[in-house]
Amino acid sequence: MEKITVVGSGYVGLVSGTCFADIGNRVICCDVDPFKIAMLRKGEIPIYEPGLKELVEKNIEAERLFFTSEIGDAIEASDIIYIAVGTPMGESGEADMRYVHEVARTIGQHLNRYKIIVNKSTVPVGTGRAVEQIIKENRKNRFVKFDVVSNPEFLREGSAIEDCMNMERAVIGATSDEAAKRIAELHAPFRTRIFQTNLESAEMIKYAANAFLATKISFINGIANVCERVGADVTAVSAGMGLDSRIGGKFLQAGIGYGGSCFPKDTFALSYIAEEAGFDFNLLKSVITANDEQRFVVVNKLREALGSLQGKRIGVLGLSFKPNTDDMRYAPSLTIIPELVNQGASVRAFDPIARQAARNQIAEYYEDFGSIEETLEDCDACLILTEWSEIVEMDLTRVKELLKAPVMVDGRNCFTTQKMADEGFNYYSVGRPAVTVGSIHAVESQTLSL
Ligand SMILES: NC(=O)C1=CN([C@@H]2O[C@H](COP(=O)(O)OP(=O)(O)OC[C@H]3O[C@@H](n4cnc5c(N)ncnc54)[C@H](O)[C@@H]3O)[C@@H](O)[C@H]2O)C=CC1
Ligand SMILES: O=C(O)[C@H]1O[C@H](OP(=O)(O)OP(=O)(O)OC[C@H]2O[C@@H](n3ccc(=O)[nH]c3=O)[C@H](O)[C@@H]2O)[C@H](O)[C@@H](O)[C@@H]1O
């Protein structure tokens, strides 16, 4: 059993802190936001993440998980301090390090005995060393020792607990072998692979992994754009490519580009890091530009389907950047909906969970509805932006009755073209031939084992 304090009770701090408690440690999650802490103490969860509420409640009850805004006291009471505060995008695309540095100062001021300081936030190379320096400058007793470890987080929103409990690997970079060993042992109940390296490489692995995944997405979106023009089907192309184990089938889903709290900011941050280091990372810059442009693919398809958007009413289904989260950070809907309005359309929109979060950001651009039925009534077209299960499983016959004409633009390729042809839709998806009522469709692709 380790005594752990997690500083920052946002997405990562709360999920990882709860998971550390669940495997038998005593964990104090703290935050500068007193309202967040007050909510958490009552078992109320400030974010939408499947299974998190139950796990928090279980560990509060078991007296393994605690919440406080007395950060100094929490640090003094623990032996391992995780830093899990935000590193948002700064003005020039760089990671804004002010919160990490502030926490390092607080840790220095409360370093009452040996501690291991572990950085979980996504940070530029050199941050571990900077944290070490800040703690040294702020500690009251220069004989009190400490180590700094980089242990980046790889969870995904929407499947965060599953990702944490069954992590594919834990990356650990440390200033001492003993500290690395102790953090590796902390991960033993997760039965995961440990990859130990130096501080700098551990910090870089996180950016490299996110940038590579973002590259895969922009690449397949580029292939999708070619597929449409030459009569190929990107879902078949991804499936066929993915059968090669050197490529792998994951993160090859074409659509409206990546969003969320991390890929957009981390690709910018890595591009900035490269530039500062004297390397013009053109490939990564193109990934970012391609992603920005991909948003507008669905707007163009709506124009293709409807002629002009002037005076048209569009029913948008899904607002969050992906299903199973209410996170609206860099969600494609934030760009697409205002563009529809700029082009003269009026927008009605529905999201099963992110309604409030979306309203906080772009309320002036659309009318918000509580169901798919209300949203689509009398619309000229339906536009899918997030593949929530409610949306993928909706009754298409009913959708057709609600719309003025059976026009659907699908930014997430939720349905097969065959199904939409059978249902009688004019269906425009990403990287696949458009379906128009009465058109003939080829047999779906399949893998045969001989
Ligand atoms: N959200 C995600 O899915 C993932 C995020 N990450 C990385 O983890 C880090 C944290 O991300 P999120 O949890 O999404 O951020 P978040 O914005 O949800 O939470 C950050 C929390 O830190 C608190 N905070 C700020 N300054 C503080 C201070 N001085 N003392 C105590 N608390 C303080 C804030 O009040 C906030 O509650 C970022 O570097 C992010 O890139 C890594 C993997 C996944
Ligand atoms: O550093 C982070 O914060 C996290 O960023 C991503 O996780 P997350 O942003 O929660 O979500 P993903 O499932 O990776 O999806 C990101 C975006 O890419 C899009 N995407 C994903 C996969 C795909 O094939 N195609 C595609 O367009 C999604 O719709 C979404 O907008 C990474 O997957 C995590 O490993 C990482 O820890």
Could you give a short description of this structure?
Helices cover 44% and strands 14% of the residues.
What report would you give on this structure?
The protein is α/β, with parallel strands linked by helices and 450 residues long. It has three domains: 195 residues, Rossmann fold, CATH 3.40.50; 87 residues, N-(1-d-carboxylethyl)-l-norvaline Dehydrogenase, domain 2, CATH 1.10.1040; 134 residues, NAD(P)-binding Rossmann-like Domain (Rossmann fold, 3-Layer(aba) Sandwich). It is built from 19 helices and 14 strands. Helix 1 crosses helix 3, helix 5 runs parallel beside helix 6 and helix 11 packs antiparallel against helix 12. The protein is elongated, with a radius of gyration of 24 Å. The protein binds 1,4-dihydronicotinamide adenine dinucleotide and uridine-5'-diphosphate-glucuronic acid. Uridine-5'-diphosphate-glucuronic acid binds next to helix 9.
Fill in the keyword field for this structure.
450 residues; alpha/beta; Rossmann fold; 8-stranded mixed sheet; elongated; binds 1,4-dihydronicotinamide adenine dinucleotide; binds uridine-5'-diphosphate-glucuronic acid; UDP-Glc/GDP-Man_DH_C_sf; UDPglc_DH_bac
Give the topology, please:
Layout: E1 3-7, H1 11-22, E2 26-30, H2 34-41, H3 52-61, E3 65-68, H4 71-77, E4 80-83, H5 98-109, E5 115-119, H6 127-138, E6 146-150, H7 160-165, E7 169-174, H8 177-186, E8 193-197, H9 199-230, H10 234-242, H11 263-276, H12 282-294, H13 297-306, E9 313-317, H14 333-342, E10 346-350, H15 355-362, E11 367-368, H16 372-376, E12 381-384, H17 389-392, H18 396-402, E13 407-410, H19 417-423, E14 426-428
The protein binds 1,4-dihydronicotinamide adenine dinucleotide and uridine-5'-diphosphate-glucuronic acid.
